[in-house]
Structures are given as C-alpha cells and as structure tokens.
Amino acid sequence: MSVHPLIESLKGKLVVSVQAYPGEPLRTPEHMAAMSRACELGGAAAIRCQGLSDIAAIKGRVEIPVIGLWKDGHEGVYITPTLRHARACVAAGADIVAIDATDRPRPDGKSLEDTVRPLQEEGVLLMADCMTIEDIRRAVELGFDLVSTTLSHNKPAIETTLDEGPDLPLLRQATSEFPGLPIICEGHVHTPAEARSAIDAGAWAVVVGTAITHPTSLTSWFKAALDE
Fold this sequence. Notes:
CATH architecture: Alpha-Beta Barrel
Keywords: Carbohydrate metabolism, Isomerase
Distance between the termini: 50 Å
EC number: 5.1.3.9
CATH topology: TIM Barrel
Family: Belongs to the NanE family.
Pfam family, one: NanE
Structural class: alpha/beta
Largest sheet: 8 strands, parallel, barrel
Pathway: Amino-sugar metabolism; N-acetylneuraminate degradation; D-fructose 6-phosphate from N-acetylneuraminate: step 3/5
C-alpha cells in the first residue's frame, strides 16, 4: 500500500481534536478556529474537527491539514454516517474525512463499502474510526488511507478491561498485523507520557482532544483531585 504524501507528513506527529459539546460556551466556529490556530502554533501536525461550519472556519485559519467529520445523532453510527455527510465535509474544506468504520447498520441502509467506494473514486482521503480489530481489518481491506482506534472505548464493558488510558493492546495488535500501515491511536490519551507510549507501541500518529482542547474537563480533573 502506497502512502499519500499528506498521510506521510503525519508520521510520528500529534493531531489535535478540536471539538466542543452542544451548549458549551466555546461551541462556535470562531472559538474552534482560534483554538486550532493555537494548537498549530504549539506544534500540532493536523487538526481533527466536526461540523461543516467548524471545518470551514478552521480551514481558513490554519495551514496544517484538517481531518473533518460530521456527527449526526448520538447513538449507533453517527460519525459521518453517509456518503452525503462525507461529501459535505469535503465541500467544507476537509483534507481528510473521518468515517465510522464499524459494521453497525448505517442510517441510509448502505454498507461501509458502498459508502467509501465513491469517495475513493473521487480521490477523497479517508480515515476509518474503528472499534475492534475486525473493524481495522475491514478498513485495511477496503483501502482506507488512515485507520484509527477512535471508537475502541465504546465497546460494551463485558468486552473490554481497558482503564482510562489509550487502547494500547488494540494498537499493538493492529500494528503487528499491518506493519508499516498508518494506524492511528485515538481515544483517552490524557498525558504526554501516554502519547509517547502510543508512538512507542507503533502508532503512526496520535490524536489528542479533551486533554488539550476541553477546558471544562480539564478544570473538573483538577477540582476532583482537590476534593479527594
């Protein structure tokens, strides 16, 4: 598998996820764009963001690549769930589009393959948000440009013994099965040491979100420590 130059530029680097939840004070495209520019100045190699307005605003403020997605809903497949959502992300300016790559039913009834093939024919770079090793295998077979552990902490509790850190066991399994392919570590990376451990475990790049760009969570962590 050949690696696109844009994907190659992310190797060994930090990608920052810049998102805010509905109803929060920072949930405006202007705030997200300013946060993204601040992360770029700090050394981020790319920005991951959600929503068409945020993608467009961030693309206008940073020079690094933008990984765009569109969250529609709150359950099941809601990360860029359909071909329409993915094409809209491209139109908004996303350099890479992130898509839920699990085998769960999609809202339009199409298969994952039916969703990604037209995009690949259009030259769109795609990131697979995966939950399990089976998802990762499927994404590799379908030719995704990036494959990520994004959804691994969403597995039912009976299927995982993960603590609050990144899913290094899944990462190691994936990088062992697919050496040299762009396997991304995303999810529950809360410290620089955890980010380093992901690279040491074979990650192509590491995505960090909450621990950098979500001040409400950061504040609550400090408060909880003082309340103990």
